[in-house]
Specification:
- This is Peroxisomal biogenesis factor 3.
- GO terms for molecular function: protein-macromolecule adaptor activity.
- The protein contains 13 helices and two strands.
- It is mostly helical.
- A two-stranded antiparallel ribbon has the order 1-2.
- The mean pLDDT is 82.
């Protein structure tokens, strides 16, 4: 029996060796694949956990960002009404001074600048705040657990938005006022305007600012991200994050999303202007479609200012709530956070 077995093995030695190699190879491959699958599964689990952490961190950041922005909205209104003091001009007009016509010309510029300037300031502040907080929270996420304490640097970085509130908003108003004056100086106070005519004026102002889009953004965002480095000696982190922010602000995507926000703001502004025409048309003896109704510019200006003052910027359903929900803006800031939450600081 053993002899025949030995003989069989000798006859099929090569086959048995081949079969053993195949079985051994399969066993080794199986072990290797199991180990790799386990590693892949662990990496995939870690990646999913990391994505969940990033998502929760980003959502928490945006809730804070929206809250900060809403707290600044009333401050923007205060700056607008203080810089463009319509009430003071109205008081002067009531005294029937010799320069009454000049005061009325100034009044029409101020009223249009109030409405457009506040909207431009709201859009710009919202975008700057979201960009800053997206970049900073991305940096914080990558450095979480390190020994460094970025709290002081975070405060220095976010304090740049205070410079925009103090000086940048006035710069926005001055830029808008220049364009408004150029676009409406040729429109006499006695000219009758329909709602469509007023929209054409608003669109011409919007297009004029758009034509100088890069210059407008550079002039109005210079307070938040100055061209030079920080004044803090050896503060490499602050210099890096400021330059990163400046690059984002100057990129074409920022300009595109800003124009989307402005377009939404113009639509909201036209809704308010339609209220003016509804109010004015109600004074007629017979029903008149507000879109067919025309009124002298001098009669429209006080109503525009009245509606501007009555609309509280932070009230429910106002433009700022629509602004915070704009999909292009939220996608833009989410992409910024995603990029900075996966890169090493200073890289």
């Amino acid at each position: 029996m053993w002899g025949s077995l030995s003989s069989c093995i000798r006859r099929h030695k090569k086959k048995l060796l081949f079969l053993g190699g195949v079985i051994g190879g399969i066993t080794i491959m199986n072990t290797y694949l199991k180990r790799k699958f386990t590693e892949w599964e662990a990496n995939r689990t870690n990646e999913l956990c990391n994505q969940i952490k990033r998502s929760n961190h980003y959502e928490s950041t945006m809730v804070t960002c929206d809250s900060v922005f809403m707290s600044c909205v009333a401050k923007i209104r205060q700056i607008v009404t203080k810089t463009l003091d319509v009430d003071e001009i109205v008081t002067q007009v009531k005294t029937n001074p010799p320069n009454k016509i000049q005061l009325w010309e100034q009044l029409k510029v101020y009223v249009f600048t109030q409405a457009l300037g506040e909207m431009y300031a709201q859009c710009l502040l919202c975008m700057l705040l979201k960009v800053q907080m997206s970049i900073l929270s991305g940096y914080v996420f990558t450095t979480h657990g390190n020994n460094t304490n970025p709290t002081e640097q975070q405060q220095k970085y976010m304090s740049r938005i205070e410079d925009f509130m103090l000086n940048g908003i006035n710069t926005v108003l001055n830029c808008v006022k220049r364009v408004v004056r150029e676009n409406i100086k040729s429109i006499p106070l006695h000219q009758k305007l329909k709602l469509q005519d007023v929209e054409n004026i608003i669109r011409s102002i919007q297009n004029s600012i758009l034509e100088n889009g890069d210059a407008f953004l550079q002039e109005t965002t210079g307070y938040i991200m100055p061209a030079g480095s920080s004044n803090d000696v050896n503060d490499e982190f602050l210099d890096n994050i400021c330059f990163e922010t400046k690059d984002v602000i100057e990129c074409p995507d920022f300009s595109h999303v800003f124009q989307v926000c402005i377009e939404s703001g113009v639509s909201s502004l036209m809704d308010r202007l339609s209220e003016c025409y509804v109010f004015l048309s109600d004074d007629t003896q017979t029903f008149v479609n507000p879109h067919d109704f025309s009124t002298p510019l001098a009669k429209l200006i006080p109503i525009m200012h009245k509606v501007f003052c009555e609309h509280k910027p932070a009230e429910q359903g106002s433009f700022v709530h629509t602004l915070l929900q704009l999909e292009p803006l939220n996608s833009f800031t989410a992409n910024i956070y995603e990029a900075f939450s996966q890169k090493c600081p200073g890289s």
